[in-house]
Structure formats: C-alpha cells, structure tokens
Amino acid sequence: MWAKSMGKLFIACEWIMKTAYLNIIWIAYTIAGLLVFGFMPATTALFAVIRKWLHRETDIPVWRTFHTIYKQEFLKANLLGLFLMVIGVILCLDYWFLQYTDGLIKGMMTGMLLLLSAIFLTLLGYFFPIFVHYDLKLGDYLKYALLLGAYHLHITLLMLVLTIATACLLLYMPGLIPFYGGISIAWIWMAGGSYSFRLIEKRGGKGLAV
C-alpha cells in the first residue's frame, strides 16, 4: 500500500516537472524566434507534444520532439500565423476605436466585437489541435477550426469557460505563469480538440469532412 502510494506520488511529481519543462521550452523558443516569428511554430510544437502525451506516448524525448516539430513547421505555421495576427490587430484597433464612440453605436459595436472575439478565440483554440492532428491545405485549417467550433458548440463553450477560469487562476498566482501558463491552456484545447476528433471518427466523419 505504501509502495503504491509512493509510486503514484513519484508519477505526479514527474508530470509536474515534465509539464513545467515543456512550458519553459515553449517560452524559450518563442523568444528565440523574436516573439513574432517564434510564437506560432513554438505553440505548434507545444500542442504536438501534448497530443503525443494524450495518445499515451509518454516516453518521448521532450526537447528533441519539440525542436524537430518547431523546425519542420516553422514556415507553414508562420504563414498561417500572419493571417491570424492581422485579424487580431484589426480586433484590437476596433476596441481602441470603441472608446471614442458612445450611445447606441457603442452598445451595438460592443456586442458585435464580443461575438467576433469569441469566434476568434474559437478559431485560435481549434486551429492548433487541427494543425497537429491533420495534414490539410493551408486555408482548410482555418475553415475546419471554425466548423469544428460550431459543430461541437457545447465542447467549445466548456473549453472557453475552462480557459477563462485558468487565465484568472494564473493572474491570481502569477508565479505559475512561467511554468504552466502556456501548457495549461494548450492542454485544455488539445484535450477538447482530441475529444471532438474522436466523436467525428465514431460517426464516420459525418457532419465535418476532415
């Protein structure tokens, strides 16, 4: 009984260290790519490693796997990231413009921007799980991210709630951010995405031709 409890404790400690290590690698590679060029391939590699863990490939060499995927997907991830960045900048500019409006126009714009922001977060959230799980044309990754988010709306809403709750927890305990900031949110979306993929495969791909 004691040996079994100690074994479980050892496994838990191992995963605490392993996930923190992966998060630190993600931050390092993001910075190494000067943020703009490093974020997308580093986040792609982060999701890819998490995907392997979720598929019970727990003994993979973390850094080597991350580094290989980072190099392989650098160009492709950045091309798609450029498009996503443009959308994000447009949304930020719209929020900036919002402060100079008032009355009915401000209320309408606020509602529209909140809806567009939720759609954009869904696009971002599903993009990475689809990117590391399927081999598609560049534009199809974005299309299927939106379709999957709408098709499994209940899963999407749950992941959004969990993401917001996790972000609030990290802001409350900022000391955790360097070790678990990225991986905790990525794990939510990769786990949710993998569950959605399994539902589609059980239905024979009906409803979403991925």
UniProtKB/TrEMBL annotation:
Signal peptide: none annotated. The chain crosses the membrane at residues 24-50, 79-98, 110-132, 144-173, 179-197. The keyword Cell membrane does not apply. It comes from the Bacteria. Keywords: Membrane, Transmembrane, Transmembrane helix. This is DUF624 domain-containing protein. It comes from Niallia taxi.
